[in-house]
Design a protein that fits this description.
By secondary structure, the chain is an all-alpha fold. The protein contains ten helices and no strands.
């Protein structure tokens, strides 16, 4: 699950840059034509894989059952970290292009930077997933990786330089390669197979909602501050709040946030 989400976020980050390249080469319609071809090509193997996939083990659940999982501290920890990371993804997606352009990059240059930043999410998830599976306390690993985002994101807002921004963003996506599988494992450990889809759905709702809110607010904060300090400063502050909340959950947990 973590690998799937990592690859999806990698596409989310690198997609605009690749689209810019394609538009430069063949015009504005080219990215959409390429996407249509890719969807058509992948549809057939996807259907074949789906036919041979095992039947889902989760029982049928309603929306109320999904939010009822929030009564469990370990699920709240995973959700808090998911909100922190996806809020930053929303900030990044809505303001990075404007910021990089202000540093003098062309659309193609922005594309190269975004592809470099997304690379860890394509290379590391399998390795990170193995480490997460072997970790005795995945909740603590999850919180530690999320905590790294706080100084990284704040520095991205304060230190306005292309090389620094790119390097810090690579550190960020490297941490995300661990955060996604760790959050998924913490939730699965808590829900078991019976409620696994419900738990992952809750993670997805929390993350996508945080990203959407950030994408709405971040451009305004960027403009008000006259640069990345406004948007990435907000992202760092939000991450700090949820990291502290996660630390409180671990500190007051009756047992380590590991396998029950």
């Amino acid at each position: 699950i973590g690998t799937l989400l990592s690859v999806a976020v990698a596409g989310f980050i690198a997609g605009p840059g690749i689209g810019a390249w394609l538009a430069e080469i063949g015009g504005i319609e080219t990215p959409y034509l390429v996407i249509a071809v890719l969807l058509s090509v992948t549809a057939v193997p996807a259907l074949v894989w789906l036919r041979s996939a095992p039947i889902a083990t989760s029982e049928q659940m309603d929306v109320g059952a999904m939010f009822a999982l929030l009564s469990r501290p370990r699920v709240r920890l995973a959700v808090a970290c998911q909100i922190a990371v996806f809020f930053n993804i929303g900030v990044f997606d809505s303001t990075a292009d404007k910021y990089l352009t202000s540093l003098g990059l062309s659309n193609v240059g922005v594309g190269w930077v975004l592809v470099i930043i997304a690379a860890p999410l394509l290379v590391l998830p399998r390795i990170a997933g193995r480490l997460v599976d072997r970790a005795p306390y995945p909740g603590r690993l999850l919180l530690a990786a999320t905590a790294v985002l706080v100084p990284v994101v704040l520095t991205m807002g304060v230190w306005e330089a292309l090389v620094v921004f790119t390097a810090l963003a690579v550190v960020e996506t490297t941490m995300e390669s661990f955060i996604f599988p760790a959050a998924a494992r913490v939730v699965v450990n808590e829900t078991g197979a019976r409620e696994s889809s419900t738990g992952q759905g809750l993670l997805d709702v929390a993350g996508q909602s945080a990203g959407a809110v950030a994408a709405i607010v971040a451009p305004t904060m960027f403009d008000l501050a006259g640069g990345p300090l406004g948007s990435f400063g907000l992202s760092g502050a939000v991450a700090l709040v949820f990291v502290l909340y996660g630390w409180i959950l671990i500190r007051h947990s009756a047992r380590p946030l590991a396998i029950a």
